């Protein structure tokens, strides 16, 4: 499978990394990660250049990494500093080092050329550090489905009525059209369902006594990050789009890490503008999302299995695919740009 | 693997189908089946033409089938009748519908061009509805072996002495030659073992006090149905072939459904001309056959595993292969005829 | 994978064979073995030439082997002697017979052309039958790694310090250089660690009160047999190489049987020149080796998994690879010689 390489992917939540080795497979590359003495997380190709043993089967010598087969030892720049049994170290004895960066409780890894790793490009969202928002970290959810399928689902309000009828959606929204547009590498999909009963979650926790206006705004940052703004407001307020923050607003964030052509890890978290200091409120939202994401998982894995079978005619495309159509086009453009760049080098 | 498509295959015993969705894989095609309000079983390609989700993961809306991902809904003719989020339905939004027919407690499915599905071609056997015969339905037995190997075994009296020495055969038959002939698409193999002790089953339930004449008649209807007539009669009667119905006669029926290149489902049932109103007698025969078919299963699955390995010389053919030779030739002719027809269209 | 065929491989310890069928896969060939009346072990291709059923699913008729599907029966020369249902036996009805030879409690099998099977070429080691040595048979250890990787590890003293730091090695030996040379098809690697504390095993069972000189001599007989001489002597004796037999000396023997491109069975045993009549001493050594070999297994299986992945640059080679470099060259020469011979025939 082709992947966009010049991109900051999520290696893991910061809490997943410590002194011991952590391993990850990202874009089909096996990686070993650990925190060194200065607190930063280093990431290396998980393969000794000598006999190919995963370096994660070795041990740390201070900040250095020693292979468990013959003791070749690598410094924090990836260069070999010791080959037992000989005095000199061959210059080609090095392991690839991946740039990393920690922000918002997440460790990011740059999978492209190291010299292009600009930390200004790491995903940022000021609300994650703002006292007006309550932030709750979710989990690393593994899908046996590739990142394109997972991303399609994250710019797709239309599935909510059918896949999540008891949690995030309701039949009332089945035929509400979507609005889709693209801004650079961000696909924005939205729709409003006005003057309707609140959905499952907001019924229980929104404190609404009557009908609500509710919205979905999906911001899919190609290739692998989705920010989903959904909320509800008393319908009598008749809030316009730009003032929806006066209602109850939740952001669900999804950080997809492509493992290989049929597997994706989706690390999720969420923010809320209500009960910001109440961890129990965060847990309630997590519980809701956990149910919904399990519903997505069943669908996306079945879709992946079917995609691996031969098909005799092209898929039918319909209006609700507008977001996915934009997304696939952006990804294709990014892949093409990387191919052009690679050919030029 | 190549399959004969213009053929009525068994989708299942009638009892396997109801209001809920049933799924089956036949000739490598995933199919969803259910009974509609008029009592008939409908069968569709188990894949939404939109995003490929198996339609069996959706739900029924009356007799219609609604996809569980985005709610596309299909009528009983396979044509899409609703696409949520838009008014019109694109004409290419349809799923393949397979003709079905129910007869003798079996649901048959036509895997070829729908316009060629002639219900006169559905397998018929008048004894199945005749009061002189007791009918007992067996089970769906899954073989990890392709249908050609399973069929070979169903026109092969010679294996009985070695694979089923304690149930269906005995060493006395080891060297009795077989008679093989072909009538159109039916291969008929037979042999008689005269004046010998009854085999396991007939010893226990035949009520014979002395030796018997016993017979096997295998009628293999290419590609996938076998009717096996076996029985015993008191040897002093010296019954000729055409009067063997005066002895104790059992028909074992096998309906093979090819799943893929290494898997076959064999649904079996049997008829008897004795104790026709005694279900316990039917169960005794089922018990006997269940033991024997487990013996076949071990053999046929091992043969399949070996066939998947490379071999350095052609198989040796011997006289007892006459039935299988006829069968393979008929299948090759049928496949060739379908290729010719496909090329002409 | 390419294998050297004209070679005596180990089919198993003699104790693994009896009247019942034993099966083995060697060089990707399935083989059935059993002891006939004269006490010898016969070995045949485990596939009936008729319908390919493994002959090991059949039964013995005296020394003959009867297929479990249709009763074809094969004599001890592999030629078919009976085809039920017909009088004559087609001449092409035979199974390949592999030459075997039993020596030192091991059954050897020749995988090449039968006429080239010279029993003088079977591995011999006089100490195995000499009263000055205590012999203990080990186990059949299965590695999910090919024989080349396993063999590399058996001419590699350098890994001992890192893979077996608590059993067979110690950090003291990490930088001691190795001596490597090739004598025909035998690669000999050695090193001495002088005047150092005894390693785990010799600490416990050597009875040493002070420092020792310890040695490793690896004799790797390409392609598949390793004899490893390791021992310790009181350092005050200052034993020269040729008198090391005056110290405590252990031979570990490894007989590798290549199963396929990713699997090897390593049958091991060992000899000692101390406590030769004490089985408990042999068991202690076995216990030690069992721990060490489990450490090797983890490493070699991980290396195999990584080798199956694509790699973007050639492996780095270092000084301690001298033994493996020699070994791989000998194997390549042997394979090339067999190709030349095959082309000439």
Describe what you observe in this structure.
The structure is a homotrimer of 345-residue chains. By secondary structure, chain A is of the alpha+beta class. The first copy, chain A, has two domains: 8-120, Rieske [2Fe-2S] iron-sulphur domain (Rieske Iron-sulfur Protein), CATH 2.102.10.10; 126-334, Naphthalene 1,2-dioxygenase Alpha Subunit, Chain A, domain 1 (Alpha-Beta Complex). In chain A, 20% of the residues lie in helices and 33% in strands. Chain A contains five helices and 18 strands. Chain A has helices spanning 147-153, 160-163, 200-205, 279-307, 322-344; strands spanning 8-13, 22-26, 29-35, 41-45, 59-61, 64-66, 73-74, 80-82, 97-98, 100-103, 106-110, 134-143, 179-183, 186-196, 212-221, 225-234, 248-260, 263-272. In chain A, the strands form four sheets. In chain A, strands 12-18-17-16-15-14-13 form a seven-stranded antiparallel β-sheet. Chain A has a four-stranded antiparallel β-sheet with strand order 2-3-4-9, with no helix packed on it. The longest helix of chain A has 29 residues, at 279-307. Chains in contact: A-B, A-C, B-C. Chain B binds chain C through residues 152, 156, 158-159, 161-163, 174-178, 298-299, 302-303, 306-307, 309, 311, 313, 315-321, and chain C through 30, 47, 49-54, 57, 66-72, 83-86, 90, 92-93.
